[in-house]
Amino acid sequence: MNDAPRITCARVTLRRLAMTDAAAIAAYRADPNVARYQSWETYSLAQAEELCRSQAAEVFGRPGSWFQLAIVRAGDDTLIGDCGLHFAADDPQQIEIGVTLSPSQQGRGLASEAVARILDLSFLTLNLHRVTARTDADNTKAAALFERLGFRREGLFRSCAMFKGVWCDELSFAMLEQEWRSNPSAGSAVINA
Question: For a Cys staple, 89 with which of 56, 64, 144, 177, CB 3.0–4.6 Å?
């Protein structure tokens, strides 16, 4: 698969970022509640435009790259978040994922729906072996999201990363292909390559 897929499900669609998404990305990424567990302190429109521009040129699945997919509401294409896929440089059978959702859209199961469809793409279309995710141990909402979808908590890494001037703990999660295939949530995405 050379181009980004379009993944359609009940309430959200995942697609390639577009330049028209920049203002919405800047708005939710600048929110302090979103930035708290991210690598940035603030997020400007210029940064969002650069993200969209760089992603327009990115090849989906390139080893060593992060590819951001827009999460939009099904029906009206309103951007509500983004999901990153990190394609490992040294192992094409594994990816790491991350998800960011606008605070106004949280608590509705939309992130769960989006990540479940990323798992469909990963395991049922790309035939990957393993998907991982890492989060700050204090980010209880992200940890609950991964556990709700059936990810295994593989470890707690104590004071493993200097993050915004403070040593932080990180949680590591993973899902294997056979685990997802037996999950009742598997297989409900329509994926157009």
Answer: 64
**C-alpha distance from residue 117 to each of 74, 89, 156, 171 (Å):** 13, 23, 26, 22
CATH number at residue 141: 3.40.630.30
Q: What is the pLDDT of residues 17-28, one digit of tens each?
A: 999 999 999 999
Write down the pTM of the prediction.
0.91
For residue 16, the enclosing domain spans: 6-187
Angle (CA) 64 65 67, round 5°: 150
What is the number of domains present in the chain?
Answer: 1
Confidence of residue 116 (pLDDT cuts 50, 70, 90): very high
> Please, are residues 3 and 192 in contact by the beta-carbon 8 Å criterion?
no
